[in-house]
Amino acid sequence: MGYVTIKEGDTEVLVPKHRKGAGPRGVNSEVFFNPAMALNRDVSVSFLRAYADETKVLDGMSATGIRGVRIANEVEVGEVTMLDISRSAVDLIQKNIDHAGVDASVHNESIEKHLIENRYRYDYIDIDPFGTPVPYFPLAARFVSRDGIVAVTATDTAVLCGTYKKKCIRRYSAVPKNNWCRHELGLRILIGYCVRETARYDKSATPVLSYYDGHHFRTYLKIEEGASCADDSIDQLKRYNFDDHSWDVGGEVGPLWGGNIFDDGVLEKLEPVGLLDEGMIDMWKEESSFPPFFYDTNVMGSVLKRSPPPLDMVIDEIRDSGHRASKTHFSPTGFKSDADGDEIISIFSNI
Length: 351
Fold this sequence. Notes:
Blueprint: E1 3-8, E2 11-16, H1 38-51, E3 56-59, H2 66-74, E4 79-83, H3 87-100, E5 105-107, H4 111-117, E6 124-127, H5 137-143, E7 149-154, H6 157-160, H7 165-172, H8 182-199, E8 203-213, E9 216-225, H9 227-234, E10 237-242, E11 247-249, E12 253-257, H10 264-269, H11 278-287, E13 295-296, H12 297-304, H13 311-320, E14 325-328, E15 331-337, H14 341-349
Helix pairs in contact: 1-2, 8-9
């Protein structure tokens, strides 16, 4: 197998040869590597810098080890443990541990086996599979340490966004909707699934940092113990009804998480790392104060049968009307506002 040395963040690692910018299937390899997930890994480094305090970290599906080695090298944590069921991957991870000169360990076993044998050992568990996290999340939520964090990636975006509605119902026990809000809907369906699974163990799962990026969803969930806090989390699960440009509570879409997807305290502590720049952090901060879902200038233009004006102009007009508004990372033509759908149509009509 051929390897090349790359630098991501402040860390050099060996990875399988791949085409620049290619996804995980760019080149055949015994060890999985996805260069397109660099932002995902950058955010995990920034998050742990903000959150970690002698944290014991488990990277449950390490592949090349790039995430775990970066955490060990770029974050002050208590310990880093990496897992993979592939012997080839474990050999490469050990090479990367040695190459980077970091203090970390690697085991050739599944995350399920490791968690059952090491329950409550880890303060932070990272689940980043190729596809759905559904087979792996419940054990992580059950066996993370008290008030720990479980970070979850889902790359089955077509399922969560409603392209495969029945598969979403089977997999996440929720009805999706393939509309302009599908990316926020998909993220909130993922969080809602995690909340329900965690509640089975009389625990709550509260998202402290959640986002969508191109081909994946990512959420960092704080897991707390207690039936009452589990009940409070369940109370945040909602169903929605969507029409051609807006929405209201009650309907068939969901159940999904209807609460905040960011914690403002965590956002304030985030610092730029790699592809995670100040602009992205500022956008998260701005949109974090708004309730679920957003409007879209293209959808509004279609409803009114006119060309949509520039997004910045729309936001300025909404603010001038006395309402709040911000851009959203879910769509380059989307905006959040505390104005309702009829008010948005009225404002939009007069631009």
